[in-house]
Structure formats: structure tokens, C-alpha cells
Amino acid sequence: MTEKRTPTAVDLIAEKWVDTLCELDPDFRIWLGRGGDVSQFADYSPNGHALYDAAVRSTLTALRSADAVDDVDRVTKLDLTGDLELALELSESKWHLRDLNNIASPAQGIRDVFDLMPTDGVDAWETIAAKLGNISAALGGYRQTLAEGIRQGFVPARRQIVEVISQAERNAGPEGFFIDFATNTAPSDLPESLRADLLFAAESARLAYLEFATFLRDELAPASHDHDGVGREDYGLHSRHFLGATVDLDETYEWGLDELGRMRAEQETIAKRIAGGSVADAVAALDNDPTRKIHGTEALQAWMQKLSDNAVRELGKEHFEIAEPMRNLECHIAPTKEGGIYYTGPSDDFSRAGRMWWSVPEGVTEFDTWRETTTVYHEGVPGHHLQVSQAVYNSAQLNTWRRQLAGSSGHAEGWALYAERLMAELGYLDDDGDRFGMLDGQRMRAARVVLDIGVHLGKKRPDGNGIWDADFAYDFMRDNVLMEDEFVRFEVNRYLGWPGQAPSYKIGQRIWEDLRAESQRREGASFSLAAWHKRALDIGGTGLDTLRTAVLGDW
Predict the structure, then answer these.
(1) Residue 393 belongs to what domain range?
(2) 99 and 207 share a domain?
(3) Domain boundary among 211, 229, 247
(4) Could you report the per-residue pLDDT of 499-543, keeping only the tens digit for each?
(5) What is the strand order of the sheet 329-333 is part of?
(6) Is residue 536 included in any domain, yes or no?
């Protein structure tokens, strides 16, 4: 830890912005581990969005007039100004009126926040009961915004509506999340009156999602359209949002094709070593190897924790400085069953540890280590956990916004993909199966660059037969991932409804790798990889343009 920084005018503006976000959306208090009332939700209505825009403008005015006194301030001012300006551009595009997709919209966020709420003690469950009871009002405000989108002609594609209807109906089922949460997750020794309140609130939440599904089916779907691509102008805004950088989309599309070819060739080379044949032959050989199988979620959780603990211990000896509070990384089986693995950061005081979550689909009981070893490194150390917890630990220099809320998907996910390649570089993926699994993931990320830009910009298909559409996107993805068809459909639907997010992983990795190479070129023989990692991570989350400026000192 370095000497405590005296807060500057820029720091105070950033801190006030965090406080404002917590007032506008109490879920920020949950994510940050702050005290205060978290039983309410954000106001998802048009009025709530107008209040948010007004707060953005006020903060932007204050920030522009503040003087940066050092490089820490310069990073904060540059990055927060860019974030706020882009927020207003996105608002002017009226994206919030059609903000509905199958993975990252209020339809999911209103439910997902319960995964992070404290569950120890009576007080915690009283808060949960109160928040469950407020879901109806939150979804009601969201419906108002989507209805205003209908009135103004800004609506999501029908494909996303169909997907969310299915999700909402699962939540609304008698065995859905809310009833299960109140019945089976809540401790049995809670006071009977509180258990009754929980069940009543869970039923209210269930019915609210049922009502929401009805609105989507009866009102939003009839007003929607079948055009999945959002076009170059809107896509450019979202690409900037997820990268924190402006890239040449046409050049990036061509680079994605080249990168995909490189990943495919490397994977095919290793497949020959594994099975003497094709990629499919290698997959079959690995899947039939009993030494690479895990049976049951308890064994899966134990395997994740052991691999994670080993990475923390070994990498902390030489390659990274990992402070004691950062060494606690918990691996959990998620309460949801949607599929996927994700990370949630520690609270500001590390009282809630960083956590790696595995959402296991219903009925899945077998897992293959060759597919997931690199995923543990991606989500844990040296991936997301090291990146996020290092910023939290650097509280002496970074204001709350910098260490907890700033950043971009390109910065975070780009680093995590860079971390996968780094682990191969350091010898942790020398096993052909584990390396094959890493390449499978990297190949998928390269395919997403091509697919996402191709669909949303209406580019010519790589096979030369017309332009990109959803049907070709499904086939293209099936050809480039080793996943079940249900996963492929979910992923492609995600790309179609969340423009610019999926490519940010691989493009972010490209920018991280280019930045390391440029730093090494400039520093020559004095370059230290460990020191470079620390310098870059100590900056905290930023957009990738800001990261480059800060790391290279090109002010």
C-alpha cells in the first residue's frame, strides 16, 4: 500500500458521482458493499431515465471545470468525462427505450442482484423480503419505458422479446427462482412471521414477472420487427462503450477473420498431437478420457477452488504482487441454472471476497477439465480477480469510482483473455488438452468479432453468399465452437441483442497485447513484465484509450 492520497477536486467529483449512482440505483450499494437502504430498485421509468441524464450533465459540467493536479487526476478526468459524454450520446440515440435482450437488460438485472445480497442473519432476510416486494414497481417502471419506445417507434427485435418472455415465465413459475429462493435458500430457523413475509414477497415477485411476460407478448412483440442488426451509427456508439476506445470497424472485421484463421490452424495442429486427426477427433478423445472428468457439482466446486488456490499461490511467488486480502478468491456454484461462468468483485473493504460463479444448467452433472482449466484462470488469477482486486486494494491512490466502477468490457475481458495467453506463456497450459481448450475459447472469441460486426453492419458474408443474417450467424458459430446447439443459440441471440459487447473481449486482448509490445519497444532492456503488469493494473479500470495514454505517458 502506498501513502494515502489527499483527495483533489477531481477525486471529490468522482466520489460524488458514485454517491449519486447509489442514490439513483441502490443496487450500486450492494455491488460496492455499502451500507444504506438497498430494498429499493432504480426508477426504470422514463422519468427515472430523465433524472439520470440530469445527474450526468451536472457531473460533466463540474468535471470540465476542475483542474487535474497530477497523472491520477488526469486519468480520472479523461475517463469519467468520456464515460459521461458517451452516456448522453446513448441517451440521445434512445437506446434505453429498446433496452431488452436475453442477458444484460433490466429484465435480468432486477433478478440477478439477489445473487449478491447478504444472507446472514434475520436483518439480511428482512431486507431481501422488502426488495422482493419492490420488484413489481421496478418492472412497472421498466414497462413504462418500453411502452414509450412503442409510442416513439424504438423497439427491440422480436427475437430478443421471445427470449425474455421465456426467461420471465421461468422466473414466474411455481418452481422458479423467487419461490425457490424464499423456500429453499432461506434458513429454516427464521422467525415464522419473516418466513411468511418472504413467501408473500416471493409470490408478488413471481406474479410481477408473469405480468411482465404478458406485456412483452401482448404489447411489445406485436410492435417489434425482425431486423437484428442495429446499423453502423448505433453500433459505433456501443463499440465505443464496451471498449472505451474507437476502432476502425472495417479493419477490425478483417483482422477478426485473420485471427480466426490463426486460432483454427493452431487448434488443428494440437488436435493431430492429441488424436492424430481432426479437431472433432481430438474433442472425442478428450471427452472420453476419464482422467479429465468431474462428476457432480460438489466435485466441480472443489476442483475450481483447488485450481484457483494453486494459481494464487504460484503466481504470487514471482510473476505478480498479490497482497494478502486479494488472495481470498471463493469459488461457488451459482443459484441460477442459465449456464456460464462469471466473476463478482470484492467489496471495498474485502469483507465480501471476490467470487467465481458457475451457473450449471439443469440436468448437467459431468464436466470436462480440459474445457475449463483456462476459464478458471480467465475468471480468477491472473484474470478478472487479480485485475479487479488490485484496483480495490489500491485505495490509497484511487477514488471509489476508479477502483470499483470505472472501466470497460474491453479493458476487463481483454485483460482476462490476455491472462489466458499469459498462462500458456508461463507454462501452465503445456498439457495439450488444456491448451486445446484455451484455443477453443480464443477461437470462439475471434469468431464473435467477425459475427458481431458482420451482422450489425450488414457486411458481406465470408463465404461470399450475400450479407450476414441471423441464420448464417448460427451456422457460422456452430462451425467455430465445440458447444451444444442450445448454447450456440443462446450465445448468438446474445450477440444480436447486445451489440458491440462480444467483440470487446478479443479486441481488448489485441489492444492489451499491442500496448505491452509498445511498452517493451520503448523501454528496451529495462522492461520488466512483472513491473509492467503492476503499473497497468494499479491504474484500475479505464477505457482502453485512457489505458494506453496512462501506461505510455502520452499526455
Answers:
(1) 238-504
(2) yes
(3) 229
(4) 999 999 999 999 999 999 999 999 999 999 999 999 999 999 999
(5) 329-333, 354-358, 341-344
(6) no
